[in-house]
Design goal:
By secondary structure, the chain is α/β, with parallel strands linked by helices. Helix content is 31%, strand content 22%. It has a domain of 67 residues. The chain starts with 12 loop residues before the first strand and ends in an 8-residue tail after the last strand. Bound molecules: adenosine-5'-triphosphate and magnesium ion.
Length: 237
Amino acid sequence: MTRAGSGNLPAAVDARGLVKRFPAQQTPALDHLDFCVGSGEMVAIVGPSGSGKSTLLYALSGLIALDAGTVSVNGQTPDRPAAWTLLRRTAIGLVFQEDWLIPTLTAGQNIELPMLGAAIDKSARVRRVRSLLADVNGSELFDRRPASLSGGERQRVAVARGLANMPRILLADEPTGELDTANSRAIIDLLKRLRAKKGLTVIIVTHDLQVAEACDRQFLVVDGRGTDQVIVKEHAG
Ligand SMILES: Nc1ncnc2c1ncn2[C@@H]1O[C@H](COP(=O)(O)OP(=O)(O)OP(=O)(O)O)[C@@H](O)[C@H]1O
Ligand SMILES: [Mg+2]
């Protein structure tokens, strides 16, 4: 694994001096935050509610305009919305805090959606959708519409969709928040397998200590400022 700033590979994510101030906000959502993630690293972003974690993920995927700072992804620093769109289509997978599944499409069609811009034929797309659904323990969800799914089932479909384009980097906002321990473990194991097999870089916002401990390190965000955090394991030994 190559850590940020070492080895030959560029950092998967190199964010410097991020400032984001929403209108009418007393304190900025991101306040001169630096965040660097090496290629193939698995990092948990932790911190209190309202501290800026989701805003940071939006910044890393180019979905919000920043007041200051720069974001580089795989050594590229997109400077136009079109460049970010291309990166999101080809290199970044996203799992949002609210799952944003399209209600009129089945689970399978929702997962297929990010693949429509890529040169993959229909039968290969469907094979990949079925394989992704199996990976998240959701094979039986293929034909179901989001309104008929439980919160945890929707979350698993959203994770499968985030992985649909075989991204180099997965940005996931509380992807296990609605899941029981076994399904949460299954998602983490899947991400670890993808990291081992394909060098996937995983950045995961979580309030779940078990998920945070499964990552290589934790990055603590408080009041829009970030620090690397060492979590002391209660039952170490
Ligand atoms: N679109 C917006 N307009 C105004 N304020 C916003 C907007 N989005 C976020 N904020 C504010 O920015 C701060 C950071 O929000 P953010 O969603 O990043 O928090 P979070 O750490 O993800 O919290 P949670 O753990 O509850 O999801 C909060 O004070 C929030 O109210
Ligand atoms: Mg959030």
